[in-house]
Amino acid sequence: MTEEKVEEKFKPFHLVLLPVLAREKALKFLDPIDLFEISLCSKRMTSYVRALRIQARHHSLILAAGQFSVSVHFQRKRPLFWDFNSFFSRENMTDTRTIGGIKFDSCERSIRNTLSIDEFYCEYPEKEIGVTTVSKHFQTIFHGPLDIVVAPYFHEKYHILFSEFKKCQELEICGTPVPSLEAMHKIFGEMKVTNKLVLRPETVDEYIIETALDVEELNLRSATWMKREHLLRLNCKSVQIFRTNFTSEDLEAFAENWMRNKKSVIERIRFDWNSGRVFRFHMLNAESWDSKKREMNYMYENDRGVLVRIDCSEGFDMERDDGLIGTFVLETVDNTQYLYFLVWRERFPERKRIEELPAKLAPFYKQLVTINKNHPDATSFERLLSNPDLTPTEFMETYRILRNMDAENTGDSLGKQSRRYVFNQMKETIVA
Amino acid sequence: MTSPASSSEVKYLIESSEGNTFDVSGAALRQSNTFNAMFLNIGADGPIPFTDYNEATLKKVFEYCEHSVNEENYSGPKHQDDLSKWDLNFFNEMDQKMFIDVINASNFLDIERLTSYCCERIARMLRGKNTQEMIKVITLPTAEELEAKQKVEEKKAAAAKKVAEKAAETAEKTETLEELPVQQLVQTTRNKLTRKYLSFSNE
């Protein structure tokens, strides 16, 4: 006799009648896409979802050439996308959603697709209005900073975006055509960028981008608008500027200002330094490299998490009263000269990195103990490499020998593959 | 019989809004933080009055508590596939009103497990649905219904206004000085004089 299967029957109920705690608890069990859907039910539902104070890692709004999407990203939940791109032909764009008073007639909801994201596809003729409206609603219900990527040249009504959003964490202007003075006013007139500003196109000399001067990370295709006064006001952690009109005297003034200004947060500036200009200090007391004061290579981690080293053996050092060293150094890459100004928050970064290596390698040694226990077929070299008492130099030498012997060793056991995977990661950590 | 003892054999009497009483085991009742805070240490002299809730709701609440007495480690949200036959019957037996009442009672009695258990069900009801479907589940009026409701209310208000105006007119016509009490008589006379004075001064 088979047991009768009982289905869970759902009967409609009044969510608004629930006590606040129970309602919030129930809503917190939902994924962002469901919360988004329920927030569209009514203004009251929007306020209920907003009251959950769900923190988004960041909101993203892209209005570029051929890409019009809005998304919200979370620490632990799946991201939620709204794509206005009509590039993908969809068959079931028959849903309707009303957001911020605008009716989006051709929508399709796609959950947990191959990319493991929750997404809406939507066709709407006025992309600028569409992305602005949807992103505004996302930001209403999920709290978090906004990142904007926009190509003004390709979107006639891009200004709608900037009339709605006055503050963002990151702003990237893309496209090659130079934005007009009017466009610059529309974009930067009221906009405050806090973390990162990237301008891919060159910009007009007449417009001073005030928000660029104290953003955390600045990347400009051209900064001919920047005069000495702007250079002196520059207080960004990391700066990369191509095309400037700065002279050695401007940089000398900048260096003097840095020597005086203890509050400066500057860590790294890279100027495109054209060959026509001479880089020479007249007044400033700069010294050549002293290995007792700092290491040869300045180190920093780039956007991709890769450790970059800049050779500063030919640099000019300035030491401030508080012990901070700033270095000017020229670098030539493919016949182009770049001038760096680097601040040594850590005077001996490589030494510090080596000191921190044992702690970074410890988890790998733990993995190796487990692997060797489960697969006791390790060779003598592999056992040696699994020994935590090896210094990084000894590890690297042994690792090289092992790799050289690979041609002679045949057979790939699971244990060997697992160990090799861990050894490779250890090697990457050591030689980073 | 009530007792402050904490052994699971002890039974407590619960009183509902109808004044009816019924037994609940100490182990089940102790899942309620409200009960723990109010009665556990001092004991209750007579039935414990939970008179804001009816008998059926309270019985449903304590049915869950009795069932989950041995479920010490609550394992978080359950998906539809994880629900046992008992879980399904527990929910299916409730109508919309009772479901809300049980959540309210659970919230008042501060029975965390039951509240979570019911909230999971709400989440299951909503998960994967689009806005229109959600509106049906949480019985929110749609935009069209709201509009229709507003129109009806406006019509009603207009009709009520008409009736009130007509009533006022009739009242003024039929109003006789003899029928009014003295104070009202004085006030009415004063009002009439004021109106006369105003109309006179306007002329």
From TrEMBL, chain A:
InterPro entries, A to Z: F-box_dom, F-box_Sdz-33
Pfam families reported in the protein's UniProt record: F-box, FBA_2
Domain of life per record: Eukaryota
Residue ranges annotated for the F-box domain, each copy included: 12-61
Xref: PROSITE patterns: FBOX (PS50181)
Name recorded for this polypeptide: F-box domain-containing protein
Highest classification ranks of the organism: Eukaryota, Metazoa, Ecdysozoa, Nematoda, Chromadorea
TrEMBL record, chain B:
GO BP term, pick one: ubiquitin-dependent protein catabolic process
Pfam families: Skp1, Skp1_POZ
Boundaries of every SKP1 component dimerisation domain copy: 113-159
Keywords for the protein's UniProt record, in alphabetical order: Ubl conjugation pathway
SKP1 component POZ domain span: 14-69
SUPFAM superfamilies to which the protein is assigned, alphabetical: POZ domain, Skp1 dimerisation domain-like
Similarity comment: family membership: Belongs to the SKP1 family.
Name listed for the protein in its UniProt record: Skp1-related protein
Source species of the chain: Caenorhabditis remanei
